[in-house]
Amino acid sequence: MKHVGIIGGIGPEATMGYYRAIIAGVQQAKHSTAVLSEISIRSIDMYRMFSMLDREDYPAVEAYLGDAAEDLRHGGADFGLMCGNTPHIVFDGIQRRTALPLLSIVTSALQEAQRRGLHRLGLLGTKFTMHHDFFTSAFQAAGIAMVTPEGPTRSSSMPVSWTSWSKASCATRHGRCCWVSSPAWSPNMGWTASCSGAPNSR
After folding, report:
1. pTM for the complete prediction?
2. 35: part of which helix (H) or strand (E)?
């Protein structure tokens, strides 16, 4: 069985959700509750990362998370993941700084959207996720429309998504991708679903 490495703290509630979801997914796949995954967590300071992003110091973010990934690799992890959308702004740069293979939330969320046959999604997240195109460009390249709130609605999406989604249960997230109804935004935007990705735990 593979040893999973989690770059956590992005934020703490999401880290716990990933931990539980991975264990549940493995036990479901093995049809046994007497099986536990080997999981290592390297928790970072989320607010330190946000400060780097505010300064647009992307090399510093890459180095910070790349070092965290290397810590996981030296601890025996076979692959790693980051339990948040935001650091995927510099996913490729982080991957270049570590020999540990990293799973991408964007790729996993896209695969899940395709599996579900979805064609138009709304994206909610931190201000960094909302103002960069790393999510939308990947989905649009696959023929899936990705829309975001505008104006005051966009500004209010970060606290709403952060407070509600980061504390969502594993049952809500399904261990794969967080698909939630968004009555405050969907009617005006024509969304069929809203999305915040998570790597498949299976």
Report:
1. 0.76
2. none
